[in-house]
Specification:
alpha/beta; Rossmann fold; seven-stranded parallel sheet; binds nicotinamide-adenine-dinucleotide
Amino acid sequence: MKKRIIVTGGAGFIGSNLCDYLLNKGNEIICIDNFDDYYPCEQKQNNLKQALKNPNFTFIKEDIKKTNKLAELLTGKFNAIIHLAAKAGVRYSIKNPIGYEEINVQGTKSILELAVRKNIQQFVFASSSSIYGNAPTPFDENFKELKPISPYAQTKLLSEKIGKEYSEKYNLNFISLRFFSVYGPGLRPDLVMNKIANGLFKNENLKVFGNGNTARDYTYVDDIIFGIEKALDYKNTNFEVFNLGSGNPIKLYEIINIFEKETGKKLKIENIAPINGESEITWANNKKASELLNFQATINIEQGIKKYLTWYKSHCL
Ligand SMILES: NC(=O)c1ccc[n+]([C@@H]2O[C@H](COP(=O)([O-])OP(=O)(O)OC[C@H]3O[C@@H](n4cnc5c(N)ncnc54)[C@H](O)[C@@H]3O)[C@@H](O)[C@H]2O)c1
């Protein structure tokens, strides 16, 4: 059934892939994004090129904190909000925490207010694996002693708590999806795979914090989108949290090996001291998402990197 969906942060990496996918399925999308300056807005403009050709796509260049203005602009009935807009970046938030609370927490509150005012019941929220900090692995949604170790991760945990309050008070369905190291076409420039590709194709050194043994549960963006789509139809409980990851942590040096093998090039590495605030490993237990959302990650790391490199070569060189 065709849905009318608001996507915040729809010009970003995950958001633009999501908008294209949902539009291809015949849905109507209203995208809210202010083109924040975390990375160059040309990339975000490019991200939206395809969607802007679709008559079912509306773009609103606005800040998510402007509740009243957005309430005025958004007319008619909506099936769901997918709230992706955020100030991203675990590492950047450690060095420069200003603005994270304002955008990620106050911004989420503003979009929740909008959901209440517009009577939109389904609210899908982009949370993050980073909120697990150094919790026991694999990370499990039932683990309750969460101690996020970066300002960014703290804002995501706080947003989940506020989402829970709203779900109880206003009977909306707040579905929080904890994404694990997403990668694919349109990747954010600050993320490691982009830096590896720049190292290989633009002859830049890759700065490796520590010895390259940190491991991440890299998840291809199409798998994340599949999980988001499933969450749109999840209406069994008012508040639910799901991990969305591949369930397969891979060490940084292994990722580098795959890139080198795929490109036939050798990366120049500069080892620097590790920084506090980043987890040693992220690893999703996907049991809950698999049982309740029928979620499964289907793209393995070699396939995913191949697809990413195809995009990188046609857009970044
Ligand atoms: N990429 C990942 O690996 C990853 C992992 C976990 C969680 N997430 C979460 O997924 C979501 C999307 O991440 P992404 O990697 O696509 O990031 P992104 O930075 O590419 O996208 C975020 C978008 O939000 C927009 N935005 C920021 N502040 C805004 C504001 N005040 N008003 C309106 N728009 C605003 C930005 O312009 C950007 O287009 C974020 O909430 C992020 O925290 C991402």
